Amino acid sequence: MSTTNQPIVLICDDHEAVHESLTQFFESNHLSTRSAYTAHEALDCIKHTTFDLIVLDVMLPDMSGIEICQTIKKKYSIPIIFLSARSEEFDRIIGLEMGGDDYVTKPFSPREVVIRAQKLIDRNKHLSDNGATIREFHGLTVDIDTLSVYVLKNKVDMTAKEVMLLYYLISNPYKVLNREQILKNVWGYDYYGDTRSVDAVIKRIRKKLPDSTATFEIQSVYGVGYRLGEKA
């Protein structure tokens, strides 16, 4: 989160009209904005300013939005809303699976983007304010502040989304969490039918977790969702 009174949003799009419309609505809702027109400008901005959210065009002149999203998520837990002219469900799911927190198709309603942005900013604030930032469970340690995961004290590299999902599971041990709950609490939006995004991230997490003597496991509950429990 930024240290200023108002959250700061980075708008990265190569069309001036997008900047003008979003800036007007964000600032009228007490959200400060900064502008970038290329991926490299956006990455430079992030080095010098702590942003609370990024609105990111999928098609940028120097790098795809998917690529820059993955680069950002390796180091930062900043929520990202994709903007895209592609409205197919496949494109939306790919964007979310690659680290995006929400996906809005063009042409869009600036008011809707602001509402979605505020929900994501509130979600991140809730995560940082909601009690312990480091949680442990049978050999698994998740630090939400540093976006770090350890298995038996050995660090496991994961994306911000993967860490956030694990943090949600470890914050609710033994509890069965359905996919809609996970979408709402980790992605930060209400259920739109993209439960496959949850399954894809769980699959990636499982592949990254090493074989060890730790006794935790992510358990699938058929037809419902997942829970963090102990190995049988």
Radius of gyration: 18 Å
Instruction: List the helices and strands in order.
Output: EHEHEHEHEHEEEEHEHHEE
Largest sheet: 5 strands, parallel
Q: Name the structural class.
A: alpha/beta
Protein traits:
8 helices; 5-stranded parallel sheet; alpha/beta; 12 strands; 4-stranded antiparallel sheet; Rossmann fold; 232 residues; Arc Repressor Mutant, subunit A
Précis, in short:
The protein is α/β, with parallel strands linked by helices and 232 residues long.
Characterization of the model:
- By secondary structure, the chain is an alpha/beta fold.
- Strands 2-1-3-4-5 form a 5-stranded parallel beta sheet, sandwiched between helices. A 4-stranded antiparallel beta sheet has the order 6-7-8-9, covered by helices on one side. It has a 3-stranded antiparallel beta sheet with strand order 10-12-11.
- The protein is elongated, with a radius of gyration of 18 Å.
- Helices cover 41% and strands 23% of the residues.
- It folds into 2 domains: 8-128, Response regulator (Rossmann fold); 131-230, Winged helix-like DNA-binding domain superfamily/Winged helix DNA-binding domain (Arc Repressor Mutant, subunit A), CATH 1.10.10.10.
- The protein has helices at 16-28, 39-48, 65-73, 89-97, 110-129, 160-170, 179-187, 195-208; strands at residues 8-12, 32-36, 53-57, 80-84, 102-105, 134-137, 140-143, 148-151, 154-156, 177-178, 216-221, 225-230.
